[in-house]
Each structure stands twice: as C-alpha cells, then as structure tokens.
C-alpha cells in the first residue's frame, strides 16, 4: 500500500491539520508514510494514528507532522502489528516538526 494521511494541508494553502484520525487494522505497508495529519504551513495538533494489525516495512509513522508550525497533542498507538525490515528502518513520531 502507499501513503496514508488522515488530513493534509498543502503548501498552496494555509491552515492547521487538526483532529484527524487514521485507523489501520490490516494490510501490508512497504516504504510508506502514515500520518494522522500533516500541514506544510501551519500547526498539526490533536491527530491520531491507531494501528491494530498489519505488516510494516520501512515506514514513517507520525501522529501529526508540520513542516513549519508546531506539532502538539498527536498520538500513535500500535498493537498487534508485524515488522518485516532487517536492514531498513522505521521512524515513529507522536508529533514531528521538520
């Protein structure tokens, strides 16, 4: 599967990515980005990623991410998932400011 983003605010727009939710209960994810919310020009807050199953390779998983603004009160909960990477990596963030 490809990228999964609950709420996305592109660079051409201003606005916060707030209170978005991503729930994953299965599937296979290779080099993917999974985010509850992402904003390029403002804050990402109150976003949630819940993973209760699935197989994950080298992935970036973040509750909320912002390129310029703050990233507060974002959460990631993982239970029952499997990883398949050996020489790859996984990045896991509750909140991430680039």
Describe this protein's structure.
By secondary structure, the protein is mainly beta. It contains no helices and 13 strands. The strands form four sheets. Strands 1-5-9-13 form a four-stranded parallel sheet, with no helix packed on it. Strands 2-6-10 form a three-stranded parallel sheet, with no helix packed on it. The mean pLDDT is 89.
| Envelope shape | elongated
Question: Rg, please?
Answer: 13 Å
> Helix amount, in percent?
under 10%
Distance between the termini: 24 Å
Instruction: Please report which band the strand proportion falls in: under 5%, 5-15%, 15-25%, 25-35%, 35-45% or over 45%.
Output: over 45%
Largest sheet: 4 strands, parallel
Please give the count of helices.
0
Order of helices and strands: EEEEEEEEEEEEE
- The side-by-side strand order for the widest beta sheet comes to 1-5-9-13
